[in-house]
Amino acid sequence: MSAALTIDSVSSGYGGAVILREASLAVAEGEIVSLVGKNGMGKSTLLKTIMGFVRPRAGRITLFGADITGVAPHLLAGRGVSYTPQELPLFADLTVEENLRIAVDDRARIRRGVEHMSSYFPFIAQRLKQRAGTLSGGEQKMLLVSRTLMSEPRLLLIDEISEGLQPSMIERLRDVLLAERARAGLSLLLVEQHVSFALALADRYAVLKLGEIVDSGPAKAPEARANVIAHLSV
Ligand SMILES: Nc1ncnc2c1ncn2[C@@H]1O[C@H](COP(=O)(O)OP(=O)(O)OP(=O)(O)O)[C@@H](O)[C@H]1O
């Protein structure tokens, strides 16, 4: 399997603070990797460094074989990667439909995309004219995931999407992301605190501790859950 993403000995940080310390991780094409770790270990920083919001100080990042180390975020758009940050970047005053249109500019694709996403999240078809800011927190997250999927990324980076979601929404989200992987061969790097969701969705987990990947393994191995919980509790 060829790599969708490789992070090779990448260091980065903010001002004088070094956060990522020669972190290395790869996501194969079609693979789902869950990145777990305690608060403040650098998980979001890793995603932001991949996306060029934080400049790498050392190391190399490749996307589908092309070197993207230090490439600015706006230049990454159109290269098949899509990023869902922890903060919800929706336009609160725009309608559901207008928010979805941001992902695609072709009318036929918008129509097909809205239909497809509504098959996953029926509220979308029912609330196309509702302002996004008036949706519930969970619905806003589903709208954001829909918008991201409508851009048909080959690699999706998602930061803590399960936070604040009720169990049935989390299960729905897991099913949707697995369905999209099966349908479109999507690769996924997921930052997650919700261990059950992280392992149920992923092929592989990786643990980030003080800016380094300190453990990784198959997510469905019998010992995976205990390993991850041990890392999160010490
Ligand atoms: N813009 C910033 N400027 C300075 N320091 C920052 C900035 N963003 C994050 N940090 C610091 O970098 C460290 C890693 O933060 P990061 O958000 O990457 O961790 P995380 O593992 O995603 O944590 P959490 O699980 O709490 O979201 C933290 O100490 C944080 O305070």
From TrEMBL:
Residues 5-234 form the ABC transporter domain. InterPro entries: AAA+_ATPase, ABC_transporter-like_ATP-bd, ABC_transporter-like_CS, BCAA_Transport_ATP-bd_LivF, P-loop_NTPase. It comes from the Bacteria. GO terms for molecular function: ATP binding; ATP hydrolysis activity; branched-chain amino acid transmembrane transporter activity. CDD domains: ABC_TM1139_LivF_branched. Keywords: Amino-acid transport, ATP-binding, Nucleotide-binding, Transport. The keyword Membrane does not apply. SMART domains: AAA. GO terms for biological process: L-amino acid transport. Gene3D superfamilies: P-loop containing nucleotide triphosphate hydrolases. Belongs to the ABC transporter superfamily. This is High-affinity branched-chain amino acid transport ATP-binding protein LivF.
